[in-house]
Amino acid sequence: MDQQLNHSPRLWHLVSLLLFTLLGTSTAGISQTEEMYRAHFDSANAAYTRGDFELAQAGYLSILEDRVHPGAEFNLGNALFKQQELGLAILHFERAKQLIPNNEDLETNLILANSQISDRIEALPTAGIANVWEGIIAPGRHLMWHRLMIAFWTLGFIAFAARLLTADFGNRRIWGTAGAVFLTLGIGFMSLSRAALSRITNDTSAIVLANESPVRSQPGASGMTLFMLHEGTKVAVIQQVELYTEIKLPNGNVGWIESNDMETI
């Protein structure tokens, strides 16, 4: 028993040293990459401040080609709005909203952009509980839930490691209980993360980019024109058949539109 008690601290120190080494190595690599993207982002922001919106647009697009970046999406929307590219501006504002759903500046700019589109479509009412749940699993909360999942799983494994390295029975029970709680919470956060990620990958929304696009009763130019949609209008994609896509509006109306006249969020 005495020999076990003497070696337990050494094992604990070895485990701690290994964990800190792994964390330090991964953190250094992430930090270097973040610095590179920060430099690109700052350069694009400087171009935007100078009023060179085309150069700023190119800078933000170069970042978005490699990674998901809410700030680049938001600022790209601003640069496009300054160039009167209303549809593309709303498209990137909507993409930014998926990543940062409760940003007041973003909401203000999106409202301003939407106020300039021609179409005025009233959405069907939704239940209050559904709105709360949609807020919890908003696409922008995916990273938050994912980070909490990793944090609590890490705490859970550390707690179980401490339980194995502790000789005192009372402390073993405490560490075991703590580990089970941490892992259970981690599983809960994993479920929320997957639900938010599912909303990103399964999002069927799109923005009309054409100045004017006819919505038809069936796919093809032979379909009867039901109504017209204009640049910046947000629609839900139902299905695609060759060159046409069936869409649904917030008010429940459905029809077919040319796929090239819009882009999915």
Overview features:
SH3 type barrels, Serine Threonine Protein Phosphatase 5, Tetratricopeptide repeat, disordered N terminus, two-stranded antiparallel sheet, globular, alpha+beta, 3 domains, 7 strands, 265 residues, 5-stranded antiparallel sheet
Question: What name goes with the CATH superfamily of the largest domain?
Answer: Tetratricopeptide repeat domain
Number of helices, counting only DSSP H or I runs of 4 residues or more: 8
Q: What's the CATH class label of the largest domain?
A: Mainly Alpha
User: Can you give the mean pLDDT?
Assistant: 84
Describe this protein's structure.
This protein is of the alpha+beta class. The chain folds into three domains: 2-119, Tetratricopeptide repeat domain (Serine Threonine Protein Phosphatase 5, Tetratricopeptide repeat, Alpha Horseshoe), CATH 1.25.40; 135-201; 205-264, SH3 type barrels, CATH 2.30.30. 62% of the residues lie in helices and 14% in strands. The protein has helices at 2-50, 53-64, 70-82, 86-99, 104-114, 128-136, 142-165, 169-201; strands at residues 205-208, 212-216, 225-230, 234-241, 244-248, 254-258, 262-264. It has a five-stranded antiparallel β-sheet. Strands 2-3 form a two-stranded antiparallel ribbon. Helix 1 packs antiparallel against helix 2 (53-64). The relative contact order is 0.09. Mean pLDDT is 84; it is low at 1-7.
